[in-house]
Amino acid sequence: MSAAQICRIGAALALLSVSAMVTVPLGPVPFTLQTLVLAMLPPILGGRGAVSAVGLYLLVGALGLPVFSGFSGGVGQLIGPTGGFLWGFLLGTALGAPALRLRALPESARHAICAVVMLATSYALGTAQLAAYLSVSLPAAALSAVVPFMLPDVIKLGVGVATGLRVRHALGGPSALTSA
To answer: What pLDDT, on a 0 to 100 scale, did the predictor assign at position 98?
Structure first.
């Protein structure tokens, strides 16, 4: 891993942390800007770099640094009611990364697919963990923790992908740094 990539992953960790601080409480799950930043990461860092940044973010948070929403941190956040959404960020980024290699599709479409897979995975894991934690049905958990966020999240994904692609091109365009 190059020094430039390490610096970019560190910057991504900082952006994820700051994006979690923009919090509007809406029931059991807060509204944050994390999905916007998560959509920016694959265009800027590539698939592996994005997965590394999200994994580092979860590790730093698990160690107790207040990088999660509401200036919180610790393992309790990962096993609590909203922890599934955080785990979903990591698994979803990993599952979405192969879309970046679909060279038959336009670049923006590849990154949009990657972002949608990340979000869908986060919704699925987050809903399941919230339902189990609160002892409610999956539809009830989804109604409170997914439905109110769907439109804003789609907008954030679009802005995030577009911004990430602009940053990527400003940094010199496609390179080994942005490979899947």
So the answer is: 97
